[in-house]
Amino acid sequence: MFPQRLDSPLAYDIAKAMMDGFNRHYRLFRTESARAKHRFETADWHGQQRAQRERIEFYDLRVKEATTRLEKEFKAGEQPMDVWQQVKLHYIGLLVDHHQPELAETFFNSVTTKILHRTHFHNDFIFVRPAVSTEYIENDEPAALPTYRAYYPTSETLGETITRIITNFQLQKPFADLERDSNYVLQEMSARMQGAKLRANFQIQVLTSLFFRNKGAYIVGKIINGFSEVPFVLPVLHDKDGKLTIDACLFGEDDLQALFSFARAYFMVDMEVPSAYVQFLRSLMPRKPRNEIYNALGLAKQGKTLFYRDFLYHTKHSSDKFRIAPGIKGMVMLVFDLPSFPYVFKLIKDYYPPQKDTTREQIQGKYLLVKQHDRVGRMADTLEYSEVAFARDRFEEDLIEEIRKFAPSQLEISDRDGDGHEEVIIKHLYIERRMIPLNIYLQEAFDAGSQGPAAEQIERAVLEYGNAIKDLVAANIFPGDMLWKNFGVTRNGKVVFYDYDEIEYITDVNFRKVPQARTEEEEMSGEIWYHVGPKDVFPETFGPFLLGNPAVREVFMRHHADLLDPAYWQSAKERIQAGYVHDVFPYDRDKRFNVMHGNATSSEAMS
């Protein structure tokens, strides 16, 4: 039971120190996000990517700082439970007028679980559910920007309004031809509205901060007319002369889902009230879970918190059992799922076959690399958890035996909470969005006879597979194991890589041509007769592993034969080493204005 009186002065001091720790974290997070504007204006692409990587580390550093301070100044871990109960209540009081209460609650949970020993840990001492509402929070300080601006154009002034929307962001870099770009946007918006009558409430709402990622800046908003709401995004890029240009006008939920995909790097956005941004973005993408939106905004810990709350809610309202995930079993990762839940759960095995020369620490390092890297829409983001407890009766026996056999160090089965319910506790776990494994997706097409729609499915899958590899190459990523089973197909038909234990930087790999045999014995030998270094890769040898099916081979060779040529890989490596930031788009090429209007002046821009 919580105390009736708050009579511990120490409790308030601990709560205040913890809040100071969070405020410092968000201040630094926001400052780094705001600097993205200057990096974009000065075309500091490497600095932008470096900042995106480094910002991911901010949260854990601030949690460590806060924990150290609380132990040093207050001996927090030695305080009795009634003091900790009061700490939480004081902290709630400090959240009432806070602009980021949901993030501050998550910070409290992170610090508290570091300090309190697991045997004393209880949900009374953390925020299992949010204690403070995030509805209608707004920054009322006189100089503060609102969450979004509303514009009220007429049919005659719509073009002027588009120009004003763009110039209101005050980018310190001239546009090559803003009038031209505004006219392109006007044409696209007019076509989208299809001559609809402008209703009394006709308006355009635009978030007041730009969304920065790599070489792009994005204006995000929606058009409201009567009962219709149309989301839109305007990507702003640098052209080949270093001037700004509007590259496209994206419309609708599907385009925004692709832009905010779980397979892309996080945005840099300067937000005083992040929950208001999330609420606005959810009005544009109602099917996208809130946890994925927080992730996309770089607030990954909040994303984890919301994911776990959604997961607990789902398990409470479902009855199916966790099972070994369908598909070919991996040599390094053990994968299971809950059929009714759209995610898979992955744990690192204790034992690997001889051909997998790796360690648990190295595999964790690969997953961290992917978390910090630009995923260019082709690598699934992962949520990483420790000490995850599941109800024992929700596990199929085959799955329990599989974990006991391959990952016994990761398994504990006990009534650790002492509540009479046995739990399965997984020590370390990765969670990813569920996709259809590409090999299964192709097999379904083969089973359908490889004709008509099945042939189209094969064509689309193989084309996307090659495009995925080329996008990864552009991001300086060599997948390592390129087998079909290591790629998945999303609900939008995108092919995404999800097996990271063998990935390397392109710049760390030696791409070689298979040497010509010197003797007939060498040519006929079933063994590799030439020297192969630990980082050597021979693209010519990919074919036998990937292209056994004639229908697959025909499509692959038509679209992606260059992937079997070491010169393709070596050329990409040399460009990256020379400092070039390759070009990958979060939208289709045919949506670009320079393609639509035959005005190919813009440089490509990384998503």
Automatic annotation (TrEMBL):
Binding site for ATP: 325-331, 346
Active site annotation, chain numbering: 381
A molecular function (GO) term: protein serine/threonine kinase activity
Isocitrate dehydrogenase kinase/phosphatase (AceK) regulatory domain segment(s): 15-319
Superkingdom: Bacteria
Keyword DNA damage recorded: no
Gene Ontology cellular component annotations, sorted alphabetically: cytoplasm
Enzyme Commission number, as recorded: 2.7.11.5, 3.1.3.-
Annotated Isocitrate dehydrogenase kinase/phosphatase (AceK) kinase domain residues: 320-588
Location, primary (coarse class): cytoplasm
InterPro entries, per database record: AceK_kinase (IPR046855), AceK_regulatory (IPR046854), Isocitrate_DH_AceK (IPR010452)
Example of a GO biological process term: glyoxylate cycle
Membership in a protein family: Belongs to the AceK family.
HAMAP family named in the record: AceK (MF_00747)
Physiological role: Bifunctional enzyme which can phosphorylate or dephosphorylate isocitrate dehydrogenase (IDH) on a specific serine residue. This is a regulatory mechanism which enables bacteria to bypass the Krebs cycle via the glyoxylate shunt in response to the source of carbon. When bacteria are grown on glucose, IDH is fully active and unphosphorylated, but when grown on acetate or ethanol, the activity of IDH declines drastically concomitant with its phosphorylation.
Protein name: Isocitrate dehydrogenase kinase/phosphatase
Gene: aceK
